[in-house]
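Response to reviewer comment R2.3. The reviewers asked that we include at least one raw input/output pair. We reproduce the pair for GntR family transcriptional regulator here without editing.
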Amino acid sequence: MTDMRQADLRLPLYQQVRDALARDIANRVWKPGEAIPTEAELVGRFHTSIGTIRKAVDQLVADEMVERRQGKGTFIKPANFQSSLLRFFRFHDADGKYRIPEARILHREQLTPPPAIADSLQLPSGGQAIHLTRLRYLDREPLLAESIWLPATRFQALLAIPLPSFGDLLYPLYEDCCHQVVASARESLTAEAIAAPYAELLQLTPGTPAIVLERLAKAYDGSPLEWRSVRGRADKFRYQADIR
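Raw output as returned:
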């Protein structure tokens, strides 16, 4: 476990404790869904008051790194991105039943990413990234084209995995094979006239209206893990929000 020797002594004590616990979470001392030590155990570990511990844990709760469960304790909050992307695109079969598209990795390579992506991933000058091209489809109809960039130093294990073994969900694979856990993400939506390379993947005419979703996914410590752009047909796009 992380000790307080890495703490910034200029910060309030509760913030030092919070940062120490956040480093442990980022280092997977406790996995998503597991309980962190009790308040009494943390008091003993950090040699501080229970009020300081509660304030530190309150900050982790506010940061959505942990969640309290009444009568059970405090647990590492698992991120749920399975339906995040697909909430914007609605896919149905002939009977009108909603379906989740399958996914297939088309191409994988390690290379120097474009400057904007390298900057988003906080790569050093000349830093390498793993690039995945992925297609989502239903009944062999291509629906979403994805361009995914990952820091090579963190995701080298992905280069040895057979492409058919990637499966439909990448984040569990990141955790199981590379010990990298996605904790949060920032997404943005734009529209464009789709360019030829993506139009070919989606079997569209270049210039067809498309929706572009960009996502920067981060670890528990805030470091960037994945930059992804997704293109889908505009006629499949749906946005819905509850306003109260």
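Residues 13 and 52 are 7 Å apart (CA to CA). DSSP finds seven helices and eight strands in the chain. Further pairs are available on request from the corresponding author.
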